[in-house]
Amino acid sequence: MEEHGWEAARERAHQLGLGIAGTSEVLPLDRAAGRILAVDLRTKYPMPHCATSAMDGYAVNGTGPWLLLKAHATNPGSGREPVLGAGEASAVVTGSLIPGNTTAILRSEHSTLDGGVLSATRELRHGADIRDAGREASTGELLAPAGTLLRAGVIATAAVAGHDELELTSPPVVHLVFTGDEVITAGYPAPGQVRDGFSPVLPHVITALGGTTGSSVRIGDTLEQTIEAIDGEQARASSLIITTGGTGFSERDFVRAAVREVGGVEVISSIAMRPGHPSMLATLPGGRLLVALPGNPLAALMAVATLVDPILRAGCGRPLATLRSAQSAVEFELLPGRHRLIPARWVPDTTGTGPDALAPAEHIGSAMLRGLASADAIMVVGPEGAKAGEPINYLRLPW
């Protein structure tokens, strides 16, 4: 059994994820949140599309003083551009269309008005507080590349840039298989039983990573049930199958045997990481992928960050998540041959001279979730360890 290094496992998962990329669909902006752009987002016209005022005050023509026109010189939507004559001014508000021949915007607080004559109380610079057409972006300018996750800021920008709808990637469909005779979904667990920590959260995690949960099933620990769960009708309708538990090599672990029985191939049999070592990635007939997560909760979610996130990113046309660098607040000893993935929190710099640092959260055993619940990031500690104050890699929480 070949054990993959952590970085190699991420890259292999992303490479295989390219094979489950689907088609695209067009949706209105109010349904685009959380989805992925299938094509580059570009402006349909200049931003702003016409010259506007950056302040409340007066559009003026010339150096002043100015004759204030009694009516606003702007008439939004009329199709006719209002024009100021020499020495004339018109009241404007922030964001409003400014008349032709406007040479500057005189702010209200920098002006005086006496009998219809407007004067400036300080020197007025030519072009002051005018938002020229196209100042933010020109027609056809790239606003966001394909593969961008659509959050509020991108959607609002798309609206301002003239888009009513967007072309989005179709999310990869995921089938979830929850295993374990000892797992209960409600009430108090008896000795030997455990509460289910996966089914309430994995569908939300999958959505956050760009996929969609098409179906799910809960099974006991038998080979027959495992085979049906990963190769039944619902599983065959999905491009990615995720199982929880049963990834070991004991006589009570059936996921690997089931993969072999249905003609699948283990591509990644284990990963040199802690926690999450017994995670598995396999290919199944029909171009489907299967990720087998360990049964321990924290180990499983670290495997999600290592295998599921890269697969779904690739399936949505996105690159691997970027490894970022921060200062380590603590020392990590050598751990030859293995990466450590550690839920971490930001620690403020107490000297006032340096950046904040990352330190391990509390309660971060492989069977614990409290540490991840309070974490800001996932520290990625290489086999060489790290000294306090040295740079260390980390991943943003992907969900």
Automatic annotation (TrEMBL):
Q: Which reaction does it catalyse?
A: adenylyl-molybdopterin + molybdate = Mo-molybdopterin + AMP + H(+)
Look up the domain of life of the source.
Answer: Bacteria
UniProt pathway: Cofactor biosynthesis; molybdopterin biosynthesis
Which SMART domains does this entry report, sorted A to Z?
MoCF_biosynth
Instruction: Give yes or no: UniProt keyword Transmembrane helix.
Output: no
Needed co-factor(s) = Mg(2+)
Q: Which UniProt keywords apply?
A: Magnesium, Metal-binding, Molybdenum, Molybdenum cofactor biosynthesis, Transferase
Q: Which residues form the MoaB/Mog domain?
A: 175-314
Alphabetical list of InterPro entries matching this protein = MoaB/Mog-like_dom_sf, MoaB/Mog_dom, MoCF_biosynth_CS, MoeA-like, MoeA_C_domain_IV, MoeA_C_domain_IV_sf, MoeA_linker/N, MoeA_linker/N_sf
The family database entries (Pfam families) matched by this protein are listed as: MoCF_biosynth (PF00994), MoeA_C (PF03454), MoeA_N (PF03453)
Entry's EC annotation: 2.10.1.1
Per the similarity annotation, which family is this? Belongs to the MoeA family.
Q: Which PANTHER family match?
A: GEPHYRIN, MOLYBDOPTERIN BIOSYNTHESIS PROTEIN
Q: What does this protein do?
A: Catalyzes the insertion of molybdate into adenylated molybdopterin with the concomitant release of AMP.
Q: What is this protein called?
A: Molybdopterin molybdenumtransferase
Query: Which source organism does the UniProt entry give?
Result: Paeniglutamicibacter terrestris
The lineage, from the top, is: Bacteria, Bacillati, Actinomycetota, Actinomycetes, Micrococcales
